[in-house]
Amino acid sequence: MASVLVASNRGPVSYTLGDDGTLSSRRGGGGLVSGLSAVDSQDSLWVCAALGDGDREAVRRGVAEPGVRMLDIDPEVYHDAYNGIANSMLWFLHHHLYDVPREPVFDAAFRRRWASYRAYNRAFAEALAAEAAEGAAVLVQDYHLALVPGMLRELRPDLRIGHFTHTPWVSPEYLRMVPDDIVEELLWGMLGADELGFHTWGWASFFIGCFQQREDSTGHAQGLWPSGDPWYGVEWRRHDTGKGRTRVRVYALGVDGDELRALAHRPQVDERLARLREEVGGRKTIVRVDRTELSKNILRGLMAYRELLTEHPEWRGEVVHLASAYPSRQDLESYRAYTASVVALAEEINAEFGTDDWQPVLVSVEDDFTRSLAAYRLADVALVNPVRDGMNLVAKEIPVVSDAGCALVLSTGAGAHRELGKDALTVDPFDVSATAEALHTALTMPAGERAERTARLAEAATALPPQRWFLDQLDALRAPSD
Ligand code: F6P
Question: Is the beta carbon of 166 within 6 A of some atom in ligand 1?
């Protein structure tokens, strides 16, 4: 039995099945992996889903990494829950991405997918209930598992349950599109937690606003008890489960500066950097690195770069845009189409402005962390312009790693803007012309100012490294409630 449990859709390890039937494993990185490493591994368990055939085979063969339990959920149920609800509904909702004349559609097919989402959440709740020691702390992650806290609370009232949302939270107004019973299920699912965590107060207050909106219409909830920093309480009363309290807190995840700098100075990154330098040929660089998600606003970023080359022709031949847009969620047609549009627009810009010895955009659609780190080091300008983003760690990573300091062009849509805004060049993510101007300002920023801003950005970016972020949540969860 474990006394600290983490639950997330994607786990810390994945398996690939070779043609000869052998299984190979690969450990992932990320904030949660380094966060959990702060607690005693004898005592902790990570519950995650088997994502593909390799993972499923590993579960069947009983090949388990210590401290990890993978759930082999029926592939159709998993597909409908992950692609059909988490990525196609909840992601679009929290990022305000719907093309409203066409979407969302809440029909019988949606209801079937929602039933799968419920079953997938239940599988997690049951596994956690079976593995948790008396009074254990359970930290549930993200929109995939929004119903788990409520389900788990019913199964194991003794547990301390936390939930952290890594994305933004939908605004109360936007949530009105969703049928009442689904909203109710979603919010009550979350309110099963003792503690709810968000990256910023903006997202946290949207959650509270959604709750208040329900309170008005259903009379089920009892209101808020705003208290002093650093948390807000939501007090609720539900006819079937009685009265309870959920605290809402903010933990602005940052990066581990020492670890990141060490990663960025490994020999393979040095070697990649040397090759990139050759490709760039001594020109200035504008760097962006994203998973190709619709919320990242890569297309408007490229449009802004095109406008920069049009409005400020002095930059032609003098700057290169290094854009890493690595694939994400390619099972979804909208993601495949978006990736294709990014590549097509980059090619258009290259065709329009490129010369024999200058390629304006170097786009990479490979998931190549070594190249990304090399690009970070080379960055004169970092472009981070999401329409809406829970935090955006790239905005925090580039200033920490860039060799000569970089000017950060950052949109108000990124959660990171709350901490980094004063030393960044702020842009409205929809304003392409203003973004083009900000790129020009960034490229011409005097070296001294750039270095000073970068130092302050790096300090803010490393204020809450992943281990501290994780331990702070654990401490809050274990603290006696009043
Ligand atoms: O970036 C936000 C986020 O919710 C992360 O917390 C999470 O790891 C990721 O998105 C999920 O992405 P994927 O669908 O590739 O697992």
Answer: yes
Contact at 8 Å (CB) between 213 and 173?
Answer: no
Ligand 1 site, residue 142, Cβ cutoff 6 A: yes
Query: What's the predicted TM-score (pTM) here?
Result: 0.95
Taking Cα atoms as reference points, which of 91, 21, 5, 10 lies closest to residue 52?
10
Q: Is 10 in the pocket of ligand 1 (CB under 6 A)?
A: yes
Q: What is the CATH number of domain 257-462?
A: 3.40.50.2000
Residue 40: the pLDDT is 76
**Distance, CA of 105 to CA of 349 (rounded, Å):** 36
Q: Is the CB of 328 under 6 A from ligand 1?
A: yes
Protein residue with its CA nearest to atom 11 in ligand 1: 10
Atom 3, ligand 1: which residue's CA is nearest?
166
Q: How far apart are CA 133 and CA 299, in angstroms?
A: 48
Ligand 1 midpoint to CA 310 (Å):
36
The type of residue at 375 is: A
User: Given this model, what pLDDT does residue 340 score?
Assistant: 94
State the Cα–Cα distance between residues 98 and 198, nearest whole angstrom.
22
Alpha carbon of residue 465 to chain centroid: 15
Atom of ligand 1 nearest to the CA of 51: 16
For 165-193, letters b (16+ CB in 10 Å) and e give: bbbbbbbbebbeebeeebbebbbbbbbbb
For ligand 1, pick from 165, 167, 200 the residue to mutate: most ligand atoms within 8 Å of CB.
167
Q: In sequence order, what are the residues at sequence separation of 6 or more whose Cβ sits closer than 8 angstroms to the Cβ of residue 361?
A: 302, 305, 320, 321, 323, 346, 349, 350
6, 10, 46, best to mutate for ligand 1 pocket (most atoms within 8 Å of CB): 10
What distance in angstroms lies between residue 129's CA and the mean position of ligand 1's atoms? Answer: 24
Q: Which pLDDT belongs to residue 29?
A: 77
Cα of 91 to ligand 1 centre, how many Å? 10
What average pLDDT score do residues 454-461 get? 98
Least confident residue range of 63-67, 69-73, 130-134, 400-404: 63-67
Residue 195 has pLDDT above 90, yes or no: yes
Q: Give the integer Cα–Cα distance in Å for 202 and 169.
A: 8
The CATH class that applies to domain 2-253+467-478 reads alpha beta
Cα–chain center distance at 385: 14
Residues carrying CATH 3.40.50.2000, the chain = 2-253+467-478, 257-462
